[in-house]
Design goal:
This protein is of the alpha/beta class and 318 residues long. Helix content is 36%, strand content 17%. Bound molecules: pyridoxal-5'-phosphate.
């Protein structure tokens, strides 16, 4: 697609019947094209939402009812637990569990993250797939280039497309990819009727981002793999967390003061939140997550810069 279709209406056919597209809340061509492309990449039926968190909210509201409980991977994206806490007022509950083992009994939805952000653990897919409840895998940090969770027994893949899929830090967007087309159709109806709908311009930016996804992610993986041993060998770094693929990693320096010195001292790298863009970002996660993370934990999202230059920026500050 070379142009964005920003229309919100499309005329009925000659018999007065709605065509495939008739009113943008029910579907629009640019959004549908981006969904088709992402669906191919992940091997399912994709639906876009205005943000990753919007996708999370829509999915749990569509799938669950008051009194239901979600088993949430401990140490996964902090905002997901905040979203679930917010929804507790409507009777949704969640319990955290160690995703490297089986989910706790008696829950109605299992929520994994592959790899988790910022602890970089990987889920036990076999244990989750054997569980009777539907399984969601937030695969934002892996992307379909490294992992297709539907092939590992997941029922839904969740992406913050704001990150690697969009890839340029200029689009806020989320996606759910469904294994079952019938469930996707129900979720689409829920999306249309509640109005949690992605707009054409972000979808267009996603289409553009997907064209370079593989080369970006492969390069970010290669650079992260080059940086991990350098960090591991550095005496001021106590822990390095890396899943072995992708551009996301985290490492610990001595304390909050040391972390602040690194994040505010970088010149090539930017001290900002988010991940998955062309530009390398670093931040101490304790500013958002408090005690949930070590005070010296720095999250690094490796971009497309030369890894030698990245190391030259970081190393003197450690
Ligand atoms: N999932 C993960 C793993 C994330 O890192 C984020 C955002 O940081 C989200 C979901 C939420 O996505 P968004 O910021 O697009 O709402």
């Amino acid at each position: 697609m070379e142009a964005v279709d920003r229309s919100t209406i499309w005329p009925y056919d000659e018999r007065g019947e709605p065509r495939e597209f008739f009113y943008a809340r029910y579907g629009s061509p640019t959004v549908a094209e981006a969904e088709a492309r992402l669906g191919e990449l992940d091997g399912g039926t994709a639906l876009l939402f205005p943000s990753g968190s919007g996708a999370t909210t829509a999915l749990v509201l569509a799938m669950l009812k008051p009194g239901d409980t979600i088993a949430l991977a401990a140490g996964c994206y902090f905002g997901t637990s905040v979203t679930f806490q917010t929804l507790e007022r409507w009777g949704l509950r969640y319990v955290e569990f160690d995703q490297t083992g089986p989910p706790p009994e008696g829950v109605q939805l299992v929520w994994l993250e592959s790899p988790s952000n910022p602890f970089l653990t990987m889920p036990d897919f076999a244990a989750a797939a054997a569980y009777p409840a539907p399984v969601v895998v937030d695969s934002t940090a892996a992307t379909p280039i490294h992992l297709r969770p539907l092939e590992h027994g997941a029922d839904f893949v969740l992406h913050s497309a704001t990150k690697y899929l969009g890839g340029h830090d200029d689009v806020l967007l989320g996606a759910v990819v469904c294994r079952d087309p019938e469930t996707a159709s129900q979720l689409k109806t829920f999306r249309s009727t509640t109005g949690i709908v992605a707009a054409p311009d972000p979808a267009f930016l996603l289409l553009r981002g997907l064209k370079t996804l593989r080369v970006r992610v492969e390069r970010q993986t290669a650079s992260a793999r080059a940086l991990v041993p350098l960090l591991e060998a550095h005496p001021a770094v106590s822990v390095v967390r890396y899943a072995g693929f992708g551009g996301l990693l985290s490492f610990d320096v001595a304390d909050a003061e040391a972390a602040l010195r690194v994040e505010t001292g970088v010149r090539l790298i930017t001290n900002a939140t988010s991940l998955g863009g062309t530009h390398t970002l670093i931040e101490a996660r304790a500013r958002w997550e408090g005690d949930r993370v070590p005070e010296g934990l720095l999250r690094l999202s490796v971009g497309l810069e030369d890894p030698d230059e990245l190391w030259a920026d970081l190393e003197p500050l450690l």
